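Annex B, item 7. Sequence and structure tokens for protein A, then protein B.
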Amino acid sequence: MNDFAGLSIDTKELRKSFKGRAALNGLNLQVPAGSIFGFLGRNGAGKTTTIKILMGMLRSDSGGAKVFGLEAGNPAQSVEVRSRIGFVTEDKELYPYMSVEQIIRFTRPFFPKWRDDLERRYLRMFDLPLKKKISDLSKGMRSKLMLLLAICHGAELLILDEPTDGLDPAAVEDVLRELVAIASSQGITIFFSSHQLTEVEQIADNICIIDKGRAIVTGVLDDLKARYQRLRVVLPAGLPAGVRWVDGVENVKQEGRTVSILASHNVDAIVHQIESFPSASFERFPVGLKEIFLDHVRSDENALV
């Protein structure tokens, strides 16, 4: 089974520090089984540390991390976890002295559920040169090869760190389409970290934004996009001094008499508050993932909340 209480990944108050500096600071993360889950954050936010803990490559200082209901920090259970995961690393490191054909032949025997049909499909789709050495492949070609190896061994969970790095736009579309197809047809959970927010928005059904080692936004992407709104307010008399915003206001920025408000919920109450300001006028706009991400992780000297 690839389901434990409906979750493929479950972390609780996960903490990890390096030389006294916190990389993870109480991370709570729940990844539904069978979902396509986007794991987002700036460089240094804690994404790679999280992935390494899930893979059993690092031990947390405290808190818990379970994959398929198994303890990621338990050496014996971690071996089973890794046998059920397909992993694409950010650096796309593979044995450089092997050819494409050799590394496929080398990898295949380790996985009894290896999919020969998918191997043939991706060799053709990705146009991988069988005789070429890995050291001579571009980063984009190494990304394609790692995806083939990860997907073909019959994994229940794919952990992908920047999976489209180095790919041209046509190849990116092919990869994204394949990820959606295997998630929907085979029930595989896909947990992927990417800086390409448009790609995440295109295929993810759940997301988590992490900053300073903590989850700051998490949920079903369509629900988040439906809840979040941007309110652009014009205040001829200016913003009242010492205003205390009602619940749901995430970020407020002021430029002259124009105030921009990011609201995560409770929008009607926020609108009611705005209407109480003298001569206020406003417009409401939908918000995409990029705007949600930037407003939560980017510090700004004009921010008032």
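Protein B:
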Amino acid sequence: MGRFIFKRLVQTAVILLLVSVVAFSLIQFIPGDPVYVMLGENIPKEYHDTVYRNMGLDQPLIQQYFRWLNNLLHGDMGYSYHFNQEVNALIASRLPVTLILGVLSALISIVFGILLGTITAVKRGTLTDNIITVLANIGLAVPSFWIAVLLVLIFSIRLRWLPSFGFTLPWVDFGKSVRQMILPVTCMSLGGVASYARQMRSSMLEVINQDYVRTARSKGLPEWKVLWRYAIKNSLIPILTMAGTTLRGCIGGSAIIETMFNIVGMGQIMVIAINFCDYQLLQSSLFFMAAITCLCNLLVDIAYAYADPRIRLE
């Protein structure tokens, strides 16, 4: 098992190195003088030259890359000239917001998706199966931003039950935080619940007719024990793949929801960094989100190995 994890760690390190090259290279394709693009054309020439040198733009590209990578490895992500703040402090203040929303929505998606998928498989062909399957298809087809607009219209504007913007950390004001999280977490979870329900239904239908499941039933085991011990556990390998995708998608792809609900998280600052060409913030944010994605993939690979010993033996 240790050798398996070591191989995955080496692969992760190689991927992150390639991502750093891509993140640095993409910024170079933005046309124009980077400082003028970032700070505007009206800044004094002296200030332009100072910022230009501080960013290392007067050096060859290869030196700029290794300087940025060296600083990154030492925990220095640079300085955001748009926010007038160190990128480290900026990410540290915004990351908890995105993590809370992402982890909550991922957990809701996984738990309710597995539950609904199991129900539809067990009750295949019944009215319950048909209703849940139709709702899952609708959940997959409807874009999250449209759901956000609809929920805000109903629960914020018409009924005035929930706030339509902002985010408060739970340890600051728990009650207010819960009320502010309901709408964005719901928007981020609906598509995931639908995906998990469909995948779990498909996996369960394959497993539930296997010989070992019929043998367990023939031994007189209760149905819930047959489902949990033999059917559900053996249906979870595809779900593990989706779990990694969901978590990194909720954390890395939260820009739309954060913008819709005016939540100041990682997604929103990346949008701002793109709009204002904040190079240091954009490069470091891209690399940081890629690192989270690689971590999610690594955890999924390890979970594979524990769920199915054949994987680590290969």
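Comment on protein B: Residues 95-276 form a domain with the MetI-like fold fold (CATH 1.10.3720.10).
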